[in-house]
Every structure is written in C-alpha cells, then in structure tokens.
Amino acid sequence: xxCLFILLYVTENGIYNVTTLCQVVKKGGDDYLKRxxxxxxxxxxxxxxxxxxxxxxxxxxxxxxxxxxxxxxEYLLGDYGPGxxxxxxxxxARGFDAFADQVPIKDFFIID
Length: 112
What we know:
CATH architecture: Super Roll
CATH superfamily: TULIP domain
Helix content: 25-40%
CATH topology: Bactericidal permeability-increasing protein, domain 1
Radius of gyration: 20 Å
Order of helices and strands: EEEHH
Pfam families: JHBP
Shape: elongated
Distance between the termini: 26 Å
C-alpha cells in the first residue's frame, strides 16, 4: 500500500508545498510509514539577509553588503534558490523519517 501526504505551509513570506510519497510497512505488528520521496515547491515573495559580524565586525562594510544583498535578492534567489530549496527539502525529509520511524500510523492523529 502506498500513501501520499501533502503539506501546504503558508507564511507571510511565501508559499511552500511539501509532498511526501510513502509506503506502509509492518514493524512489530504495527503499520508505519516509510518515505519513498519528498518534493518541495517554494515560491518566495521576498528574501531578507541580515548577516552579522562581516569583515571582522566592520559595521559599515557589513551594512553595505546586507543592503546590496537585500536589494538584489531576486537575482541571488535565481542562482541559489534551488540549492536552498533542496536543503529545506532534505531537512524536512529527515524530520519526517525520524518521526515516522518511531510513531505508528495509528498514533499519527488523535481522534476522540
């Protein structure tokens, strides 16, 4: 049996659609989820950089770098956005794996 979990996470800074494809596996008499793959779609409305202590703590140079990055975030996101999204996807997948490995499906949701 396979299942599909879809998580839509919305913040004021963008929309992230996380989809996890899972397989149900038996372990110790209970059903658990084993992740097959996780997909992430991220749409950033704005990225804000605030690096601290740049150039040995030179505040003037650090502020100029942050200002440049914040004014050009769209160009930077075009270059680095896919890598950032992949890191986020991998982090979410590891978290899901750790949870799903320890919690049987019957305990995922508490229903009164």
